[in-house]
Specification:
Chain B: It is a peripheral membrane protein. The complex is a heterodimer of chains A (259) and B (568). By secondary structure, chain A is mainly alpha-helical. Chain A has helices at 12-15, 18-33, 38-54, 58-63, 65-82, 95-121, 124-133, 138-167, 177-183, 185-208, 227-248, and strands at 84-85, 88-90, 93-94, 257-258. In chain A, helix 2 packs across helix 7 (124-133), helix 5 runs antiparallel to helix 6 and helix 7 (124-133) runs antiparallel to helix 8. The chains are: A mainly alpha (259), B alpha/beta (568).
């Protein structure tokens, strides 16, 4: 079972400089946030999906489609009720709150997808390198990428522990919400302890390989900024600026929504 | 001058009551190949950690005496400072690899030493060539096999170009091929570069090539010497919970002074002493054993027909398996890492469901019933007890299963008592499981399965990470459970455990069953086993050459033609 998100492919997005990809990630987070109207958000989502298609990373998105659908449904439903509008449909639901709910659900999904494309196309070491070149100290960048690296390890330990417990008769999938939470306690202890043990051996392995030996270190991966990096980045930055301008002028909002 | 000098070393871990090491004096000379052996908790790993200063600089505690690496004392210096002289490779290859590609993993060490990128490229190429992973540069470490991962771990320290490489049980989690790969690389490194090498190892046969063997017991060095000096003292090895060599054991019992260490030497000694093997006695022994076992077996309890299993990434792990296991059998499932053996046994309690074909357990189709139905029939002991232990006391841990099945409290009490008695942990009910040794935690895991009173018990690698004495204890327990009527299915890499305990062997290779039969018959076919990358224990290979298949030293002794003259 492969728990890593990175997809080893050779696409134009994979070849982008990590610095460009980090900045594009910020743009692809900002763009959905700058829009309130569902049609505008749909446009932003489409843009991100096209980016993902170029990166041939839609397979990873398909892996979590259930989660994406659930997030969409729940956040939509919540805002159907809680957002306030001027054109009542039924009960507390208004035409504007429906639009707002759909837009919010889609927005969150779009941002998750943007993050996923980034992780599918950028190696951990490239993220570290990119962050350093963007001005972060090595230690901070290393901690960040190591945290990302440990996620699949924890997920793997979690899968093994839950199999061990299910073999002993633990039925995780039934009972009320509270009962289910209680059932997770036997899972958490072994996962937690094995994670501590893992990080401990990781620390020993790092030290044994000379980590932190001298303040200066070289990097095997050499980043090279190329013309198409500029092209991609300029495209996303310009879109973000235009989008911000549209928001300030009120083009992207839902008329009749009471804030 | 010695590379590492240890004088009067004593170390107690922070929070520990007993010293992990005491009175250690040791010199490691350039170009030496040292094998360290000893029981669990003898201090082998701690000794390794002192060699590059991880003890006492990262692992804190009370440190007395001195460890000098090329004249510099380790205490008070950064571990990374010594990495260019001594590097460590650990048992757990999962946690020591953290990069996303093979190439970057190997580059990490030299990067820390500020080596220019062009030179790193050269070092990566060279290190990967040495461990035979050329061509794997862009692969993800996570997708390599166990043996490949451990080789990568070795490459990732070789690129630092150290003088000493110390490996702490590098092959414990590996299948026989993986073990072989690691050891052949170790000997190649020694021949090419005269690299100093220190390996902690459980298996005696691999220690034969060493220059020096160090035997540890309870934090001290009990004995050291050449393999011939150390390995011919079976009593000394047993005293340190190290499995003696079969040949030395056999000929020692026969009263020989000069003990053979290899199968060839054994055959030679056998011929020279004019010993003969009584085929008649052998045949009657085999027949008696066979009929006793046959009589005990009941109805089929697990029936597998045309089983195929594909994982979500479309990898087909099982490609059509047919297998019937009868109640009361003791089956060992052998095969390489990734051959599909764990995937197979996870079908026996419904953890996995067939992609095609069917698995019927105690009359229930695993596709139709939910997993908690199978938990009462089939108990599954996972490889690592720490993946299931969670409770604050041993008693609570063992009672967990029966409680989930709604067993009344009075009966739970009784079941916990019986289970702990069976695993010989009675009296430890109120202990915290995490304060026990690995061997004891393994037993707690078995007890917690036993308390649900399953008819079938599956054990995944029950002896991994245990020393010889603990392995014996564990397997005697499993044998008793089988005698009590439990059907035993065990996934294992350990060939001697299989030879001495299993009634039947199933060999899985590339998702198919390639051999299936009584242990004795399967172990007689050495060529076929080798094709599945398995090598039977010394005593089996020895007796095969004599024209019979004996599974233990005792069996050879029993079939010996009585002699007049006694020993030479």
């Amino acid at each position: 079972m492969n728990l890593y998100l990175y997809l080893d492919k050779d696409t134009i997005v994979h070849r982008l400089d990590p610095r460009a990809k980090i900045l594009i990630l910020i743009c692809t987070f900002a763009i959905p946030l700058l829009n309130d109207h569902p049609l505008w958000v749909a446009g932003a989502t489409l843009l991100i999906l096209i980016y993902g298609m170029l990166a041939r990373s839609l397979g990873n998105i398909a892996r979590i489609k259930t989660i994406l659908v659930l997030i969409f449904i729940f956040s939509s439903l919540m805002w159907f009720v809680f957002a306030k509008g001027t054109t009542p449909l039924f009960w507390r639901v208004t035409r504007e709150s429906v639009m707002y709910g759909l837009a919010t659900g889609l927005k969150i999904d779009a941002m998750i997808i943007a993050g996923l494309i980034f992780l599918s196309t950028t190696k951990n070491e490239e993220i570290t390198q990119g962050l350093i070149k963007l001005g972060l100290p090595f230690a901070v960048a290393f901690v960040f990428s190591t945290a990302l690296r440990l996620v699949p390890t924890f997920v793997g330990a979690g899968a093994t522990v839950s199999q061990a417990m299910r073999s002993r008769g633990l039925d995780i999938d039934s009972g009320s919400f509270l009962e289910r939470i209680k059932k997770y306690v036997p899972l958490l202890v072994p996962i937690f302890l094995s994670s501590i043990r893992n990080t401990d051996s990781l620390a020993m392995a790092l030290e044994s390989k000379g980590f932190g030996n001298s303040p200066r270190r070289t990097f095997y991966l050499q980043l090279k900024w190329q013309p198409f990096d500029t092209l991609f980045l300029v495209f996303f930055v310009v879109l973000t600026i235009l989008n911000a301008w549209a928001k300030i002028n009120g083009f992207t909002s839902i008329s009749g929504l009471i804030k | 001058m010695s590379l590492i000098e240890i004088r009067n070393l004593e170390f107690t871990y922070k929070g520990g009551t007993q010293p992990a090491l005491k009175g250690i004096d040791l010199d490691i000379n350039p170009g030496e190949f040292i094998v360290i052996m000893g029981h669990s908790g003898a201090g082998k790993s701690t000794l390794c950690l002192t060699l590059n200063g991880l003890v006492p600089n990262l692992k804190k505690g009370a440190f007395k005496g001195e460890v000098k690496i090329k004249g510099t004392p380790t205490a008070g210096h950064k571990v990374s400072h010594f990495a260019r002289t001594v590097v460590l490779v650990f048992q757990d290859f999962e946690t020591q690899l953290f990069s996303t590609s093979v190439e970057l993993e190997v580059a990490f060490g030299p990067e820390n030493f500020n080596v220019p990128p062009e030179e790193i490229k050269e070092r990566v190429r060279e290190a990967l060539q040495k461990v035979r992973l050329t061509g794997f540069e862009n692969r993800q470490p996570a997708n390599l096999s166990g043996g490949q991962k451990q080789r990568l771990a070795i490459a990732s320290v070789l690129s630092i170009q150290p003088e000493i490489i110390c490996m702490d049980e590098p092959t414990t989690d590996l299948d026989p091929v993986g073990k072989y790969e690691v050891f052949s690389i170790a000997s190649a490194l020694r021949q090419e570069k005269r690299m100093t090498m220190i390996i902690v190892e459980h298996e005696v046969e691999e220690a034969l090539e060493a220059d020096r063997i160090i035997l540890m017991k309870e934090g001290t060095i009990l004995a050291q010497g050449t393999p011939r000096e150390i390995l011919s003292q079976s009593d000394l090895l047993a005293n340190c919970a190290v499995k003696p060599l079969d040949m030395a054991e056999l000929f020692g019992r026969l009263g020989f002074k000069e003990l053979p260490l290899t199968v060839e030497e054994g055959l030679e000694a056998w011929r020279r002493a004019g010993l003969t093997f009584n085929q008649e006695r052998y045949r009657s022994m085999v027949a008696a054993q066979q009929s006793a076992r046959e009589g005990k077996y009941g109805q089929p309890i697990i029936e597998v027909k045309g089983l195929r299993h594909s994982y979500e990434n479309n990898f087909e792990a099982l490609k059509g398996i047919d297998l019937t296991i009868r109640e009361g059998e003791f089956v060992a499932i052998l095969g390489q890492n990734g051959s599909g053996k764990t995937t197979l046994v996870k079908h026996f309690n419904g953890l996995l469901r067939p992609t095609a074909g069917e698995v019927v357990v105690a009359g229930m189709d695993t596709r139709a019933e939910s997993i908690d139905k199978f938990g009462r029939v089939v108990g599954y002991v996972f490889q690592n007890p720490d993946h299931q232990i969670f409770a604050g006391t041993v008693k609570e841990e063992v009672a967990y299963g029966p409680k989930l099945y709604g067993v009344p409290p009075a009966e739970i009490e009784e079941r916990v008592r019986d289970a702990l008695q069976a695993v010989e942990l009675a009296g430890l009910e109120e202990e915290d499981p995490f304060s026990l040794t690995k061997g004891q935690r393994q037993r707690v895991a078995v007890a917690s399965i036993l308390a649900a009173k399953p008819r079938v018990i599956i054990l995944d690698e029950p002896t991994t990470g245990l020393d010889y004495k603990e392995q014996r204890g564990m397997m005697e327990l499993v044998r008793r459970l089988n005698d009590m009527g439990h059907t035993i299915i065990m996934v294992t890499h350990s060939m001697w455990v299989t030879a001495e305990y299993a009634h039947r062997v199933v060999v899985v290779k590339d998702g198919r069953v390639v051999m299936d039969g009584p242990t004795r018959e399967v172990f007689a076919r050495e060529d076929e086993l080798e094709a599945a990358f398995l090598k039977p224990p010394q005593i089996v290979r020895f007796s095969n050459r004599l024209g019979a298949t004996c599974l233990s030293v005792e069996e050879v002794m029993a079939c010996l033609e009585s002699r007049e003259g006694g020993a030479e």
